[in-house]
């Protein structure tokens, strides 16, 4: 009897620290789900409000935070492409 296996889906969390205007360390996190069977992936910010993800600019902290989110999404995208061998 031969046992076979294959990786179908994997879940990862990517986080990045950022410093707010009061010099406190904050963290942003995105969730990455890779579907190896379909060769697709999804990236979602971990902290959504009412199940929605919207870029809103509300001040200096928002600008710094959104840049950290963008960098984290970028890293997750590179990782997914590497894992899926695109």
Characterization of the model:
- With 86 residues, the protein is of the alpha+beta class.
- It has one helix spanning 60-84; strands spanning 9-19, 25-35, 40-45.
- It is built from one helix and three strands.
- The radius of gyration is 16 Å and the shape is elongated.
- A hairpin with a 5-residue loop joins strand 1 (9-19) and strand 2.
- Strands 1-2-3 form a three-stranded antiparallel beta sheet, covered by helices on one side.
List keywords for this structure.
alpha+beta, 86 residues, 1 helix
Topology readout:
Elements: E1 9-19, E2 25-35, E3 40-45, H1 60-84
Antiparallel strand pairs: 1-2, 2-3
Q: Please, how many helices?
A: 1
Low-confidence stretches: none
Report the biggest beta sheet as strand number plus sense, adding barrel if it closes.
Answer: 3 strands, antiparallel
Count the E strands: 3
Strand order in the sheet with the most strands: 1-2-3
Output the structural class: alpha+beta
- Taking the alpha carbons of the first and last residues, their distance comes to 34 Å
Q: From the alpha carbons, calculate the radius of gyration and give it in angstroms.
A: 16 Å
> What percent of residues adopt helix (DSSP H or I)?
25-40%
Inertia-based shape: elongated
The overall average pLDDT, rounded, is 88
The arrangement of helices and strands along the chain is: EEEH
Strand content: 25-35%
Brief summary:
By secondary structure, the protein is of the alpha+beta class. It has one helix spanning 60-84; strands at residues 9-19, 25-35, 40-45.
């Amino acid at each position: 009897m031969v046992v076979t296996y294959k990786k179908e889906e994997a879940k990862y969390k990517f986080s990045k620290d950022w410093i707010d205007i009061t010099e406190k360390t904050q963290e942003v996190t995105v969730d990455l789900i890779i579907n190896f069977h379909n060769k697709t992936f999804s990236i979602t910010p971990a902290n959504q409000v009412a199940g929605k993800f919207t870029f809103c600019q509300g001040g200096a902290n928002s600008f710094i935070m959104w840049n950290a989110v963008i960098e984290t999404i970028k890293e997750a995208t590179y990782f997914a492409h590497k894992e899926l061998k695109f």
